[in-house]
Here is the input.
Amino acid sequence: MKYLSALPDVMIEDDVRAALLEDLGRAGDITSQILVPHDKMWNAALVARGAGVLAGLDLVRLVFHLMDVTVHFDACRQDGDDIVAGDIIAHVSGNARALLAAERTALNFVSHLSGIATVTRRFVDAVKPYPVAISCTRKTTPRLRKLEKYAVRAGGGRNHRFGLDDAVMIKDNHIAVTGDLCAAIRCVREAVGHTVKVEVEVDTIEQLRQILTSSADIVLLDNMKIPELRACVSLAKGRFILEASGGVTLATVRDIAETGVDVISVGSITHSAAILDFGLDDAV
Amino acid sequence: MKYLSALPDVMIEDDVRAALLEDLGRAGDITSQILVPHDKMWNAALVARGAGVLAGLDLVRLVFHLMDVTVHFDACRQDGDDIVAGDIIAHVSGNARALLAAERTALNFVSHLSGIATVTRRFVDAVKPYPVAISCTRKTTPRLRKLEKYAVRAGGGRNHRFGLDDAVMIKDNHIAVTGDLCAAIRCVREAVGHTVKVEVEVDTIEQLRQILTSSADIVLLDNMKIPELRACVSLAKGRFILEASGGVTLATVRDIAETGVDVISVGSITHSAAILDFGLDDAV
Amino acid sequence: MKYLSALPDVMIEDDVRAALLEDLGRAGDITSQILVPHDKMWNAALVARGAGVLAGLDLVRLVFHLMDVTVHFDACRQDGDDIVAGDIIAHVSGNARALLAAERTALNFVSHLSGIATVTRRFVDAVKPYPVAISCTRKTTPRLRKLEKYAVRAGGGRNHRFGLDDAVMIKDNHIAVTGDLCAAIRCVREAVGHTVKVEVEVDTIEQLRQILTSSADIVLLDNMKIPELRACVSLAKGRFILEASGGVTLATVRDIAETGVDVISVGSITHSAAILDFGLDDAV
Amino acid sequence: MKYLSALPDVMIEDDVRAALLEDLGRAGDITSQILVPHDKMWNAALVARGAGVLAGLDLVRLVFHLMDVTVHFDACRQDGDDIVAGDIIAHVSGNARALLAAERTALNFVSHLSGIATVTRRFVDAVKPYPVAISCTRKTTPRLRKLEKYAVRAGGGRNHRFGLDDAVMIKDNHIAVTGDLCAAIRCVREAVGHTVKVEVEVDTIEQLRQILTSSADIVLLDNMKIPELRACVSLAKGRFILEASGGVTLATVRDIAETGVDVISVGSITHSAAILDFGLDDAV
Amino acid sequence: MKYLSALPDVMIEDDVRAALLEDLGRAGDITSQILVPHDKMWNAALVARGAGVLAGLDLVRLVFHLMDVTVHFDACRQDGDDIVAGDIIAHVSGNARALLAAERTALNFVSHLSGIATVTRRFVDAVKPYPVAISCTRKTTPRLRKLEKYAVRAGGGRNHRFGLDDAVMIKDNHIAVTGDLCAAIRCVREAVGHTVKVEVEVDTIEQLRQILTSSADIVLLDNMKIPELRACVSLAKGRFILEASGGVTLATVRDIAETGVDVISVGSITHSAAILDFGLDDAV
Amino acid sequence: MKYLSALPDVMIEDDVRAALLEDLGRAGDITSQILVPHDKMWNAALVARGAGVLAGLDLVRLVFHLMDVTVHFDACRQDGDDIVAGDIIAHVSGNARALLAAERTALNFVSHLSGIATVTRRFVDAVKPYPVAISCTRKTTPRLRKLEKYAVRAGGGRNHRFGLDDAVMIKDNHIAVTGDLCAAIRCVREAVGHTVKVEVEVDTIEQLRQILTSSADIVLLDNMKIPELRACVSLAKGRFILEASGGVTLATVRDIAETGVDVISVGSITHSAAILDFGLDDAV
Here is the structure.
């Protein structure tokens, strides 16, 4: 799971700083400033409150670091790890005011991203015996795509394209305009750079048949029933990377995997994942 | 529902621009640029794909506006409205490339915020007969607090404090440091401005009894069982605003409301709401 | 004076960086670059040139730190201290070019904020025997509210609301629109969150009488003469927090305090404070 | 007074936006959102509450424009105008919520900058018969230099250098390092571009005599008494631009002007100017 | 040339604004402010001063628009057009101060980007008869990659990957670490998403032979002589996209094209292109 | 060459961070993340691939530092040094992933700026025997003026004005508006601050004669032939700083220098300099 590797700090500092400032507002943590002596130290532990997959530990570290560079942060686990309620994830110690002020922001990051990693892992586990990848989509929380796609990787999933610019995706609307799917694929091939893949969305096996000799790299089989998926696989396996998509759930994903498609993309792993809960506890 | 009023554009432009750029990347919507003639016009409709409460329409409008100032956007519904699958929310027409490039960003905003408004409304409806407010917490998605708290209002909920700076909240950790809850309340009162409210977290009725004559404005009854909540209400109703919190679900919220507390705060309405799905359809 | 506690660096770094860049322009400190050898070291002292109250020392430290991380900064005094001309506030030593380039920006911060703290302290001292708080307003220098409100705290004052969003303030213009002050207060109470206080502005004792049984938290007595203030205090003391405001000066503040109001808010402490002068001297 | 010409919007938009957001916080103007109907219109007038010189009208216009593009703003006066209490400066009409939300930010800008223009004008008037310019310094409020230097121009003053990069200024500290003033001037001349002027600070007529044949453009006569200033003028008038500086007040500026210096620079016009008060009144 | 389509304004506004502010500095265009009456209008023409390919017209339009929204901009030509000295590219009319202040920034953008488009076109023309694409690299001017890659498209070239994240490129350094090229390709394939292409750099035909049955999409033939290129094409044509790279010039590109490679990537078209000169002339 | 002194980090951090993020995109360096073990260390050397003048070493250092603070960077040479192909410029060692991810950004900075320094040096060397300065213009790459002007200094050139605000430049268009060159100069003199120089552009010796007694500081002799330049020098040497400009090349610059002008400004040293190539090599 090498690719899981944490995003470099330079890529996440702006997010962490903005999240901290959103919570600190215009006066900072007024409660702690009043009640906690300025030189009081505190030892705390980041503890899991539920079972799942860890993601976002670097963000937690950076939240505390940007709040106070003298905070000590020692990780006990790493992103991608399976964790259960009660697991100590990291020890955090330093100025008490700084820890208390940073606490909620740190927890919000790790809870949100671990929630995504956890649900991703459930899908990945559900299709275990089959040689199929679980992929995310572009249905992500606005401004958090980079982080959420990272969490998908932490959960064992793969990333679909990151934006409108890093792969071509020809959808029905595009076809409605140009009229001819094969012509569209040819047109795209001629225009884009050689490092860009071309994906085409089809709704029926009929459409798939039409583009069978085209130069598309990937075909998205949209909202198909299991038998139709199976037929498409028979028809085109090996010619294209075949991706099943549309309303996939934990209840249906295994049957879809069994059809032989190469990739199953699931929007809900990013847009509707519940958090995995964490807390910052006094470390006695 | 006057307070629902949309956030002024100056408060959301940065979010919208950042979300658009996150999707456009470094080359923009390469598929549409290649396949769609530059002067092609398109009429589309924003359509609900599920039932719930609408929130985020101004963000949708602004996404299209920042993508292309000449896009026409006509809203049929407004934030806070109950909607069902198939409802047309708005008509959007203009340059086809611009609409296609802005589509996913617009949908991501409205789906995320309507998801929050929808689950909030469910909690609000569940406690209908009782004079109790449903409130959010600071457990929000990093960088999106302002928007998510707005969505809570759209769903009929009330907002808890927006950050560490706009109200005092004395928690167990603070007490562990200062030792005496009543002293802490007095200390805070003397230090903060006169526009700031002071909230205190208690875990037991015993703690509540200790601060009964203090000048706290709000008491948070943390993770209490129904009978204990009821006892606290008997003891302190009218002296403080009483807020119940901790693991509240749709299954438990009505019983909590029945105890007579003034506010029930629910973290899951912001941190674990599934989206409400929307689509951008060809408007034939 | 615990709440005085310096703002965390993450809240002021942007201000410091922007101020430095405003002075460095597009070529930096061309004089020092040409005349001062690149490895020349310098020992300097931040010295007060007048008497007053210190505020902004953390900004000074951060100015030098962002200019050159190897600069040593040792504070001799702390924010909120009374100082007189000639007092050494801090020792600063390090690369001479860096110190010279950062000098003016550092001095501008500490002079501006100490000026505010100083005039605030004068108001606070003037009302000493009375149990009344001196408060600032929202009449602050654009973009510097966070810092100027901090300086008010350093001077012993309290902060009024930080913006339009952290407390309700019902003014004459609002009433002109809704027509009924009591109705307005009820309306607001129902809509805002339970952590938000409601303040109402009244111009006459008659208006005060009308809202006497309302649920307002604070009443601002606007531009009233001393006898009228006294009458308002007799009428409403204990029911509301009473705040006197409007053209308050050092000459009038003590008489206002004597009336028994709880808070006196003074715009001039932020919008018209002269600086307290400081210099960076060669430390022989 | 052509050079007074307002700064182009692109140079001030960031300041205006940041100032608005500082006041709107995370929830916007909650009072007006609750109490004022969303479609309520309002006609208001920007009115002077004191006598002085107007500066910052473009910022006022832009504050309202960024808050709501449909606001109408009609200026009756222009920057640099003499105004008295009661003068209507501009008519502003549009959505009531938008006007109320933008009011304080608009007033804070125009009050601060007009305060600077007003005190500048007083200095300019005080030296009227003499061919001498009143100049500002780099002692400005952090982050506001661009605006404050503009206000100085509006008051009839001239701008000194804008930063460390647009002119050379050799001070005592630099000399302490290099040892020889004349050598320093030669050294600078050889290194800087041909569009950059070189200014040298001297404390005594003796120092002035040493550099009499140097290629300096400007000599700053620092903290000199009137007779010494006069002697310096006799010695060096015409060879250099002579600038008097150091603790200049309205009481002393005319005598300084009489000595024949070319420029008098005054720090207090930017760092210690009281505001000129303005209000936004209902326009019946 | 559909893909040439101008980047949407939201993607270039920040660049344009930053470039304008870089030139306006802290006081704006002081010359025009002093000499040109504030209501003076001017009709000007953007004119080519050399022959080449136009690129960047949208940036020119946006420069004038952000300087003054009332400026009229009428384009006579479009990006990708062949132009010669004297050609009128666009008519620009409006406030004279605004046009003069924006002039240099507008010219710098269009000159730089047209320079890149022009040299790209020369390479494209040089390989005309051959079915080979001319591609750029990541050797671009820092912060301008998005714009420079657009200019390459305007000149008829194709874009290589936009960053480290949108395609895999296995170089010698990576191999030095992992030891085995084929293993590296397998490893990558398993880890990256299905929309990402994998490119491998080889220095010799021997290396190419080793990976002949691998799943790489693209093979970069680095710094090979013509005969070696030809041998590689014989060996692997059709299996991979073959890209020649390394010190390609106008003198050598045709011979390389003749070998049958699919893509020739040329760093100098972005990193060393001379500008194509333009001017803003009085439109009599 | 004291003025060459590196720009302080606070002035270049934003550029470096933006350039890194431009290359890292939304997923970072996916190749190295997959193939290189996360704890693999690497020793590398920054090596020149051509002969010229070094510029931008501080940017290289900062690129690696912002990527990973634990990277060791040891410079062997300094900006302004003459270097030849094969010279080791710096040793860089640390985490292999970090070095590989930062490599291209670092090389792009130093190659671009050294390219400018190199061509500047060629012009400087070409006029060696003459007391004339080689100066840049405002024809710089958008957003990079500060860096490119620094590179000019590194090459031994001088900087012309940095923007529209730090010197007055009266051009033909301004005269077309005001009608009288001498009146324009007087007008400017009265309006601008005393630290600002005034430059006037003339096309003919006749124009120069007209302004001979004016108070201009600099006269730009635009696009004149050698004899006309010589005549201008005879007429005005010593009265003004004389600057020759317009289409200057390495072939013509010596003859221009010989005419006796004080400054020769050359646009191509910033807008059309080819890069000086560098590489990051394995340091065995």
